[in-house]
Design a protein that fits this description.
With 22 residues, this protein is mainly alpha-helical. 91% of the residues lie in helices and 0% in strands. It contains 1 helix and no strands. The protein is rod-shaped. 0% of the residues are buried.
């Protein structure tokens, strides 16, 4: 569903932010 896609995008963005922050 849409929620699944949103969750995937958020997870990727979060991971990217953590990687960039570190």
């Amino acid at each position: 569903m849409i929620q699944n896609s949103l969750r995937s995008v958020l997870a990727t963005s979060y991971a990217s932010a953590i990687s960039g922050s570190t």
